[in-house]
């Protein structure tokens, strides 16, 4: 006897009712049918992985928000990869990494981006400002218009997020930070 899964039925209905529209909308925005198909697929995959779908009064608006966010992340990732490739192109051949090293570096950058993408927006901003721009927490608080205490908490949570992501994939039994 098969159990009825209302979540599965909801996502299936959303897919049947709106996939064609979403693909067309994305194609008109991106100018590429293949990229639109990939992004439409990723949108429904993200919806599926979320595990719960709220009652939607405007499902197309909801799907559009997910698709826009995925597109922005994709463009950011491509810009990061392109910047890396431009730096490589400027290096002298003697010092340029091998093709294998280039692929490994791009994969590492994609993994870093995936890790950052898993953080809430404010936490990601705090992390990037502190770790990559080298800003002190007081300056981050000023720029974000928040308190120093919030910045401290977000920075700690971001570091914990990174630690858990790295060590839980390497060895699940070591995923907890030491006490």
From TrEMBL:
Domain of life: Bacteria
Molecular function per GO: DNA binding; sigma factor activity
GO BP, one annotated term: DNA-templated transcription initiation
Domain (RNA polymerase sigma factor 70 region 4 type) ranges: 110-162
SUPFAM superfamilies: Sigma2 domain of RNA polymerase sigma factors (SSF88946), Sigma3 and sigma4 domains of RNA polymerase sigma factors (SSF88659)
InterPro entries on file: RNA_pol_sigma-70-like, RNA_pol_sigma-70_dom, RNA_pol_sigma70_r2, RNA_pol_sigma70_r4_t2, RNA_pol_sigma_r2, RNA_pol_sigma_r3/r4-like, WH-like_DNA-bd_sf
Pfam family of the protein (one): Sigma70_r2
Annotated RNA polymerase sigma-70 region domain residues: 14-79
Keywords, alphabetical: Sigma factor, Transcription, Transcription regulation
Record-stated family: Belongs to the sigma-70 factor family. ECF subfamily.
Protein name: ECF subfamily RNA polymerase sigma-24 factor
């Amino acid at each position: 006897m098969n159990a009825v899964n209302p979540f599965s039925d909801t996502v299936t209905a959303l897919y049947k009712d709106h996939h064609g529209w979403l693909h067309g909308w994305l194609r008109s925005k991106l100018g590429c049918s293949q990229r639109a198909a990939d992004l439409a697929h990723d949108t429904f995959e993200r919806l599926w992985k979320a595990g719960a779908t709220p009652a939607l009064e405007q499902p197309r608006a909801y799907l559009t928000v997910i698709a826009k966010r995925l597109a922005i992340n994709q463009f950011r990732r491509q810009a990061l990869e392109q910047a890396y490739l431009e730096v490589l192109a400027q290096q002298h051949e003697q010092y340029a990494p091998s093709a294998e090293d280039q692929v490994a570096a791009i994969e590492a950058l994609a993994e870093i981006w995936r890790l950052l993408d898993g953080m809430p927006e404010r936490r990601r901003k705090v992390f990037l400002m502190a770790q990559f721009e080298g800003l002190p927490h007081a300056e981050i608080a000023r720029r974000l218009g928040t308190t120093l205490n919030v910045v401290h908490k977000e920075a700690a949570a971001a570091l914990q997020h990174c630690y858990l992501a790295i060590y839980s994939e390497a060895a699940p039994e070591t995923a907890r930070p030491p006490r």
